[in-house]
UniProtKB/TrEMBL annotation:
Functional note: May be involved in the biosynthesis of molybdopterin.
Pathway: Cofactor biosynthesis; molybdopterin biosynthesis
Protein name in the entry: Molybdenum cofactor biosynthesis protein B
GO biological process, one term: Mo-molybdopterin cofactor biosynthetic process
Taxonomic source organism: Halomonas ventosae
Residues in MoaB/Mog domain copies: 11-155
GO CC term, one of those recorded: cytosol
Family matches, as CDD domains: MogA_MoaB
Amino acid sequence: MSEPMIALSIAVLTISDTRTEATDRSGQALVERFTDAGHRLVEKRIVPDDVYRIRAVVAGWIAAPEVQVILTTGGTGFTGRDSTPEAVSVLLDKRIEGFGELFRQLSWQEIGSSTVQSRCLGGLANATVVFCLPGSTGACRTAWHGILAEQLDSRHKPCNFANLVIPERGQHG
């Protein structure tokens, strides 16, 4: 890759009724990985697993021109309060169907059939790419190394999501 990578501006939302900044290992793992790759953190927040609070934060970031990528962690399972897919899916202009499919394929190698309980999702909204990941640190690592590191790299060929959110490109690149 001879051309320089174009750094993206990323916001991270941890969805949890129990985590704090001191105990949020998954959100911190994502921040470490993408900043090590050369991207920028715009904002990091923690909200309880509540459809309307999640939706409000994500909608605000989708509307913010300085946010190109939103990564959420948590709330994608099947327990009573897991509500990230319900909160975020209505905000998306287009779903990235292959994201959940590929994540579960990669996850199968690590956790076997338990991967069927992941309701992770991805999509595009207002020239912002959104990825909703499970809350475990391992799942965040799997998503980053198996999918997001390449798809958020403007140099990755034949296509990537970075080139869809970079204003002057707006295409696959």
